[in-house]
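<purpose> Linking amino acid order to shape
<body> The protein record starts here
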Amino acid sequence: MNHKDIRTSAAKAAEAVRETGRDAYAAARDGVVDAASQVGSALRDEAESRAEAGKNLAAEQGQRFANDLRAEAGRRGNKTFQGQVLDTMANGVADLSEGLRGHSIASILQQAESFARRNPGAFVADAALAGFAVARFARASSQPDHPASPGEAAQTSPQDSGVIVGSPQKNNTAKAAATSHTGASSLAETMP
């Protein structure tokens, strides 16, 4: 074997090593990409599963709230203004709950995005209104079932109850806030 043959053999061996290295690198890269894709897919599937579970829970709670509103409307009399308002609210909450059940998360998000693009002002106003409603409901739901002492209901400040000092509703509103058991009755009891 002469010097030229040794060089040629070494060059071929080096090329074979480079080719093997490239193949190994490509296989490793493809393996990492596939693994990352599988992990990403698993994470996406888990996120979608949790979002669906949350959506279903929200739909169930919405239906319960609608039932509470209907019960409160019946208690107040369906022919009274308060009863009619509560019944209308119950129908709206029930429709929203059914809408949640009937659509996928992706569909709901797509509809919300489409509405926001068509009506940005209405979307912001609706979001603010929903935020206020949720905050009001949460605040009403966090009130204790019974006051700790007999005078606790009387200690509710007019600013907390939204009633003007000297208003004939002052005592009724404080009593309603202190004794409410559900968001529906709390909401209804603050109505005039």
Notes: DSSP finds seven helices and no strands in the chain.
